[in-house]
């Protein structure tokens, strides 16, 4: 019994290892991991600030207050919201957090010795139906749970009345039942990272309701990211959060300098209105206005222009 639910049952329909393989095969879909795999890695030495603990963050008049993600990973519960305008680098940040060893190091303090699992999904509006829907989210999360937590597989099978040899019909309802059975029957802890809620296609309230149903479980917490759209802001504005475009100026500067550094002695900088290389870089960063994607798109054009004199 866990959280008032009883799922500790024996399921004899198939041997556990075979049952697990059948369920995994039925859940898998093409492009399940494609969105995360397509996100380019962060520029070296950027995004390290995300692991600053709350007590070490230096408040300055030009650096708006934000809630430390590291402190939330260590001890916080509920929901953390990574908010930012289009092109500010939210998906790059979320992919970085998911892959960085420091994330699990921080989460291990929250886990208090219990087995810890990081589950993730990256919504992608231009992608397939399953890359931008609740069904795709639930299938991906359940796939990850079954991959990592062997002992819940029989409980999942019982919850959905699994029938070996028959093609599974993974409706949203059955997926929700399966995930609830898995999470509520496990003593492990789970941290969800859900990127691009604004990329979801469908009734947004159904997605935010799902997030809060997960959040209500005592062994679950979630980090979500999105643009500051009205309905998402209404749902997450009171959560611990950061506003990415207010915090990424130094990272944009590092990116621009990395790409332009080899031209530092070019006479072209003495001819421009800023007279210096550093002045030129500062102007590019200023014009980006927190939109990392703008810098990524503009800098190659600048490189070609500078190279040609």
Automatic annotation (TrEMBL):
All residue ranges annotated as the Nephrocystin 3-like N-terminal domain in the record: 68-227
Keyword list, A-Z: Repeat
Cross-referenced Pfam families: NPHP3_N
Family matches, as PANTHER family: AMELOGENIN, NACHT DOMAIN-CONTAINING PROTEIN
Protein name: Nephrocystin 3-like N-terminal domain-containing protein
């Amino acid at each position: 019994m866990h959280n008032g639910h009883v799922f500790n049952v024996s399921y004899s329909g198939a041997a556990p290892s075979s049952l697990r393989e059948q369920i995994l095969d039925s859940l898998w879909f093409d492009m399940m991991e494609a969105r995360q795999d397509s996100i380019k890695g962060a520029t070296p030495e950027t995004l390290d600030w995300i692991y600053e603990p709350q007590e070490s963050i230096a408040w300055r008049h030009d650096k708006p207050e934000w809630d430390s993600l590291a402190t939330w990973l260590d001890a916080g519960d509920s929901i953390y919201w990574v908010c930012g305008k289009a092109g500010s680098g939210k998906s790059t940040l979320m992919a970085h957090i998911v892959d960085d060893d420091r994330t699990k190091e921080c989460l291990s303090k929250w886990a208090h010795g219990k087995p810890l699992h990081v589950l993730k999904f990256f919504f992608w509006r231009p992608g397939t139906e399953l890359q931008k829907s609740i069904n795709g989210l639930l299938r991906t999360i359940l796939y990850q749970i079954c991959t990592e937590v062997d002992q819940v597989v029989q409980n999942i099978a019982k919850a959905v009345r699994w029938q070996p040899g028959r093609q599974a019909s993974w409706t949203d309802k059955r997926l929700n039942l399966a995930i609830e059975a898995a999470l509520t029957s496990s003593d492990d802890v789970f941290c969800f990272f859900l990127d691009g809620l604004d990329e979801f296609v469908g009734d947004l309230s159904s997605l935010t309701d799902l997030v809060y149903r997960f959040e209500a479980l005592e062994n679950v917490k979630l980090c979500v990211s999105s643009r500051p759209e009205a309905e998402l802001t209404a749902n997450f504005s009171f959560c611990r959060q950061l506003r990415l475009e207010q915090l990424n100026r130094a990272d944009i500067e590092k990116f621009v300098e990395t790409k332009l550094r080899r031209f530092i002695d070019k006479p072209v900088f003495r001819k421009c209105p800023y007279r210096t290389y550093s002045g030129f870089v500062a102007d590019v960063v200023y014009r980006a206005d927190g939109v990392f994607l703008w810098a990524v798109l503009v800098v190659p054009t600048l490189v070609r222009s500078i190279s040609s004199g």
